[in-house]
Design brief:
The chain is of the alpha+beta class. A hairpin with a 5-residue loop joins β9 and β10.
């Protein structure tokens, strides 16, 4: 077993999970034993003291038959106020945003007891009339996630993106006439949650509640261009959905033709301001610098050789995708472009404050 590799020092302590700054934490499953372990920064293997004698006596058997499961660790934790519900949440070292199992029921103001469970579906659905509206994505997100809290406690939770997906189940069930009278309170709650999440999204809310957004953005100062912009072009695949353009046309009261790709050049300015402009300072400028503009010999019109999106790294793509979704949801809440422009600074206040923080950090770095 790689954990017990040659020359690795093995240390025993009461709770390996409480060791800070570890490269890895997890469990070794051997026969009926669940052995907690950690790998320290200097490479030591730290194991629960209760298993010291067994490890020393049966090391060869454990190496041959033990199964190792690496468990993600929480890097930030906090309490999220979501439409009046105080729920525990965390950001894991693999970047997943987590809510605790109890928090899921608190979010929907629903008790855990007395639920009718449909086999293979999360208990929060609680009935065949709802379960038939569950998407494959919701079922995947409803799998319980095991992780280690900052305090060294084993914990379980759900991917936070499960919340809006459950809301969709209730809304779809209502449209189909499948909601039962006793489920109306949860339906109303789902509508309230959808309105709250439309302002920023569950990922952004958890980043704010745990303080992870500041840590992420300040760390990004050290690798802004390298972390967001790739030297190689990725394949363009029409990243912006038609719904994005449809909402822009609606806000401006323009006629929208879903079969046509012809769009006003202003849409590029709109996208720069409200999508690419939400990336850390300097990214949009570098994308412009790396995207040559040529003039067509036939029409004498200028055009970009490639799209900004094609220059982004995985980190950049993840953030742009996130803001496309958030901007679409926000556009849907506005009657026209004037309302959109007035409310945008308020709805995205936290993000704009983070960008100002980064700008100040950059100024200090260069002064």
């Amino acid at each position: 077993m790689e954990l017990f590799k040659q020359n690795r020092n093995v240390v025993y302590r009461e709770n390996p999970y409480k060791l800070e700054g570890c490269k890895e934490k997890g469990k070794i499953y051997f026969e009926d034993n669940v052995i907690e372990y950690a790998v320290s920064e200097n490479g030591d293997l730290v194991i629960g003291k209760i298993f010291e004698n067994m490890i020393k006596e049966r090391i060869d058997s454990i190496k041959g038959y033990g199964l190792v499961k690496k468990i993600p660790q929480a890097v930030n934790e906090g309490i999220l106020d979501l439409a009046g519900a105080q729920i525990e949440c965390a950001v894991l070292d693999d970047k997943r945003r987590i809510i605790t199992q109890t928090a899921l029921f608190q979010t929907f103001e629903r008790p855990r007891k007395g639920l009718v469970r449909v086999e293979g579906y999360p208990s929060i659905i609680g009935g065949k009339n709802l379960a038939k509206h569950a998407s494959n994505e919701m079922l995947d997100k409803s799998k319980v996630i095991e992780y280690i809290s900052i305090g060294g406690r084993g914990a379980t939770g759900y991917d936070s993106e499960l919340i809006p997906l459950i809301c969709e189940v209730y809304l779809d069930a209502e449209l189909a006439g499948d909601i039962k009278s006793k489920q109306i309170p949860q339906l109303l709650r789902a509508k309230t949650l959808i309105r709250s999440l439309a302002k920023i999204g569950i990922t952004g809310l958890i980043d704010e509640a745990t303080g992870y957004q500041y840590e992420r953005e300040v760390n990004a100062l050290q690798r802004l261009l390298k972390g967001y912009i790739s030297e190689e072009l990725i394949k363009w695949g029409g990243i912006f959905p038609k719904k994005y353009y449809k909402e822009i046309f609606r806000l401006h009261n323009w006629d929208y033709d879903p079969t046509s790709n012809a769009r006003p050049s202003y849409i590029g300015t709109f996208t720069n301001n409200y999508v690419y402009g939400m990336l850390p300072p300097g990214i949009l400028e570098e994308l412009k610098r790396k995207t040559p503009i040529k003039v067509s010999k036939n029409s004498n019109k200028s055009y970009k050789v490639n799209r900004y999106y094609q220059r982004l790294t995985e980190t950049g793509i993840e953030e742009v995708d996130s803001y496309i979704d958030r901007v679409i949801m926000f556009m849907e809440m506005c009657e026209d472009i004037q309302e959109f422009k007035i409310k945008f600074p308020k709805v995205f206040k936290e993000r704009l404050e983070v960008l100002d923080k980064i700008r100040n950090e950059l100024v200090n770095d260069f002064n």
